[in-house]
Amino acid sequence: MNVSGTRLFFSVLLCSALGGIAPAFGQSVALPASAIFSVVSFPSRHVDARRVDVWLPKGYRRENASTYAVLYMHDGQNLFDTTYSYGGHEWCIDEVAARMLAADSLRPFIVVGVWNTPKRFREFAPEKPFARTPEVFQQQLGDERGRELYSDAYLRFLVAELKPFVDAQFGCSTRKEDTFIMGSSMGGLISLYAVLEYPAVFGGAACVSTHWPLSLQKNDHSFSDAMGAFVQEKLPAAGQPRLYFDYGTTTLDSLYEPHQLHIDSVLRGMDYPASRWMSLKFEGAAHSETSWAERVNIPLYFLLGKP
Asked: Whole-prediction pTM value?
C-alpha cells in the first residue's frame, strides 16, 4: 500500500477468475481518506482485458455501502492521475467529487473508471445506429477506422461482468436509480447507447462533448440522424433515464452544435421531462480533459445531486 497526499492506492492482479477477490482494506473501518482500488487486468469473455480503477470516498465503509450510488466512467486512465492520462491532463474527478461530497451537495457514491484499449473507437461506436447509416457512410468510416464494431460486446462486459464484480466486492446499491454512466467524446456516444440498450441497469447518462459525427474526416449528419431515430425508438416511456449533454465551441467541439441541437429537438418532440434532461453549451470550451474538469461538477450534480 502506498500513501500519496490524501489518497490511498490498492492494486490487485486478476488473471482469470474473479471469485474470492476482496478489497485490500478492512471492511469494518471507515476509510480515513479517499481510496483508489485498481484491478490491473480485469478479464472478460467479451472484450480485451483492461485496467479498472474504483474510487472510494473518504468515510466509505463496506458494511454501509448499500447506500452508495455508482458512476461508471469510460477512459479511466484520464480520470484520476496525470501520470497515465492522455496529454498529461486529467478530469480531477476524485478531487471534484470529494469537494462536493464534503459540501453535502451530492449523495454518497463511488466511481468506477474503466480504462480504454487500442480498440477504443470500435468499442465506443454504437453498433445498431451505425448499421442504420447510409452504405456510403459505412464504407467511408470503414476505410477510416475499420468496419467491425465491438460496442455491444463492450456493454455486455460492463453489465454482465464488471457490474456484478463491483456490486459484490464493494457492496454498493444495485438499483438502476443509483447506477449511472458518463463519458466524453466517443465516451458520450457509448454512454447514451448504454442507457438505451440497458434501461433496467442504468438510471442516467452524462454525455460530455459527444462526438456525434463519429467520423473525423466527414462532418455530416449520417450518424447523428441515425442516433436520433434510435433514441426515439428506444427511450422507455416510463422510468426515463436522466440525460445530460454538453459541448464547447472550440477545437473538435466546434463541430457538435448542429448535431446536439438535432438530438435536443428529438427529445423535445418526445415531450421528454425537463427535470430529466439537460443540454448545455459552453462558449470557448475546448475538446479536452482540462475543459471537462472545469465543468464536471455540473453533470455530477445533475446525476447525483441532493434535492
From this structure: 0.92
